[in-house]
Amino acid sequence: LKRRQMKKMFWEMKQRKKKQSPLIEKKVVKITSEIPQTERMQKRAEQILTLQGKKAARAARFGISSVPTKGLSSDNKPMVNLDKLKETAQRFGLNVSSISRKSEDDEKLKKRKERFGTVTSSAGTGTTEDTEAKKRKRAECFGIA
């Protein structure tokens, strides 16, 4: 009985509180600006111009020739310092950049040319009299000639 009585008392207290508290009216705030739309557009344009000026100043400070436009363009390639790439490659023992790989391959080719001289295509694949004689002999063995 005590539990039921306690529950009933709590329930009655809640009901009284609900009746006592006045209904809270929701406040509706309309957002209207005192500034006309033309002035807002002018302020926005000024902000954009100042942002573009800031970007141009930053580009000049970091040595970038032009401010990048919207989207990706294939013409904008960063300037590469080969000496720095070589130092990095020596430090880590790897060539990370494709540009440094190309320069390294070119150096290897130059060294090879210095050692062995330039190889012409006719010298490597040219046929001599000995090879011609061997070919004829082989053809005779198989009855092709």
Give a short synopsis of this structure:
The protein is mainly alpha-helical. It has a domain at 79-121.
How would you sum up the global shape? elongated
| Beta-strand segment tally | 0
Profile the largest sheet. Answer: none
Percentage of β-strand residues: under 5%
Mean pLDDT: 78
Order of helices and strands: HHHHHH
> What Rg is obtained from the alpha carbons, in whole angstroms?
43 Å
- Decide which structural class fits the backbone: mainly alpha
The total of helices stands at 6
Give the terminus-to-terminus CA distance: 124 Å
Query: What is the helix fraction of residues, given as a range?
Result: 55-70%
Low-confidence stretches: none
Describe this structure in words.
This protein has 145 residues and is an all-alpha fold. It has a domain of 43 residues. Helix content is 65%, strand content 0%. The protein has 6 helices and no strands. The chain is elongated, with a radius of gyration of 43 Å.
Describe the SSE topology.
Layout: H1 2-20, H2 37-62, H3 82-92, H4 98-116, H5 121-125, H6 129-142
Overview features:
145 residues, mainly alpha, 65% helix, elongated
